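I am writing to request your help with a piece of structural work I have in hand. What I wish to show you is a protein chain and, alongside it, a tokenised description of its three-dimensional fold. Could you please explain, in whatever detail you think fit, how the structure tokens follow from the sequence? You will find the record immediately after this paragraph.
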Amino acid sequence: MIKAHISEIKSLLKTPKNVVIVPHKSPDGDAMGSTLGLYHYLKMYNHNAKVIAPNDYPEFLKWLPGDEKVLIFETQAEECTELIEQADLIFTLDFNALHRAGNDYGKVLELATGTKIMIDHHQQPDDYAKYTYSDVSMSSTSEMVFNFIEMLGDGEKIDTTIATCLYVGIMTDTGSFRFLSTTSRTHQVIATLIDKGANNSEIHNNVYDTNSYGRLQLLGKALQNLQVIPEMRTAYITLSQAELDEFNFKKGDTEGFVNYALSLKGIIFAGIFIENTVESIIKISLRSKGAFSVNEFSRKHFNGGGHTNAAGGRSHTSLKSTIDNFISILPQYKEQLSQT
């Protein structure tokens, strides 16, 4: 983000404004960590800030400071639409295309007249915001929010509450600091957040060590369904709606399951395919090691995108047809998968 834009944003934030902060649909740790971190910062300047999530998010994020203030567009559409229409500023965080907030929410955002500010680290951003802070090299949007606050000259204003939110976002989007996007700068930011009061041990326990019995049973079923295609160095997991129902699936229960497939020796490309009969889609999460781009794979074949080594997508055919299609596509990438 260029200095002139920072100066203009700083001027906009000098006086209290109606502000809406938006994460992507099905918000993850980085989406909620970054939006709530920014929310607490803006409240310091008496802005009338609201976080409006497109839909609900996992229980393991519900302890975040400010969670009780989050509005859900899916269940509070009329109230949320009115707030968006009245907003002077609209921050869109952790996504870079308005449809990623959901079709209905995306249309409301598109029509909104408030000044839009995008902060995001995904590839190929759309051109909808007046001010765009986009950097695909960053570990997470939460790290970018930390930088954004520093750019505004307010690094010293980061307190324990903001630090906790941003720590969650960085930790979850870097796979607990093991992904390639984790840089020395990322660790420096994390160190600062700990110094500001983020309790790293407590945060990790809150996010990762609160499994339900049903989730662990579902993980067992997912591992039973694990399939390997050794000649393509690929592994995948399937979960049907019936299997989700059998183990009392809750939003967020499948978080991280795909990484078990990727952890297999010799595997560099992994996916999980989850049936959602309510939305009539197959939700797809893809992961890779090395140079193989699941972002490009997902964009080309499954209406998705993301990062080089982590992306998502969706299919509107049956679970079996989706898997058959996935397997049929793989030979096109045999050379890339064998060289990576």
